[in-house]
Amino acid sequence: MTEPMIRVRNLTKAYRRGGETLTVLDRLDLDMERGQFYALMGPSGSGKTTLLNVVGALDRPDSGEVFVGGADLMALSGSELSRWRADTIGFVFQGFNLISVLTAYQNVRLPLLLTPLSRQRRREQAMHALELVGLADRAKHRPGQLSGGQEQRVAIARAIATDPDLILADEPTGDLDREAADQVLELLGRLSRELQKTVLMVTHDPLAAERSDRIVHIDKGRLGGLEEPAVAHGAQA
Predict the structure, then answer these.
(1) pLDDT, position 236
(2) Which of 24, 115, 117, 137 meets the CB 3.0–4.6 Å disulfide criterion with 47?
(3) What's the whole-number mean pLDDT along residues 60-64?
(4) What's the predicted TM-score (pTM) here?
């Protein structure tokens, strides 16, 4: 049996505000298979983004087990986690987080500067990533010269430039109109179907969630259930 891409057991995370303790993840158990597109849904404060941050090694839980791609994140040091994250994870955020003075190509190349790749190989990988998102012809454009949907596609190109196994997307369509959102969702679906990337997307939008393979509901830090979307992933244009 194939090992899950993401496996968490008894995951607990709490924050302390003043004299109050707020439990965000409460003994959560969850498996996510490789090469699947997951939508993570739940009310505000349910623990969605915290779970994303724990899986992406941006935050440590208080207790529990976290295995991603076979790596035991709880056993890795801070420096080991940084190296693992650079090799394994691609992050996509709601606000794009592109550097305004850099071109699309330069933004996509940024994570590759931390690798031992040659200058030529970095260029090839950055351009290949832009080709995958359909923006090779916008390589010399700066973010201010692109639409919101194009900016997010550049952000996705940056996330996949290092060829990560897992893409973590936090509300990637939150700032986009419906047409641009559909293009981004179709792209995430293609990355899962055609390149076998595992995609975990936090979203509050039921229409966005319908584009995934599996919808994961979480409430008050506990798993509320998994379901298949009514519309098959990738069925829309």
Answers:
(1) 39
(2) 24
(3) 95
(4) 0.90
Structural contact between residues 33 and 228, judged by C-beta atoms closer than 8 angstroms: no
The Cα 174–Cα 189 span in angstroms is 17
How far apart, in Å, are the Cα atoms of 217 and each of 9, 42, 92, 121, 149?
16, 6, 20, 41, 27
What's the pLDDT score for residue 16? Answer: 86
Q: Which residues contact 120 (CB under 8 A, 6 or more apart)?
A: none
pLDDT at 228: 81
Summarised one tens digit per residue, pLDDT across range 101-116 is 999 999 999 999 988 8
What's the per-residue H, E or C state across the chain?
Answer: CCCCCEEEEEEEEEEEECCEEEEEEEEEEEEECCCCEEEEECCCCCCHHHHHHHHCCCCCCCEEEEEECCEEHHHCCHHHHHHHHHHHEEEEECCCCCCCCCCHHHHHHHHHHHCCCCHHHHHHHHHHHHHHCCCHHHCCCCHHHCCHHHHHHHHHHHHHCCCCCEEEEECCCCCCCHHHHHHHHHHHHHHHHHHCCEEEEECCCHHHHCCCCEEEEEECCEEEEEECCCCCCCCCC
| Structure token digits, residue 142 | 């700066």
Is 76 within 8 Å of 67 (Cβ atoms)? no
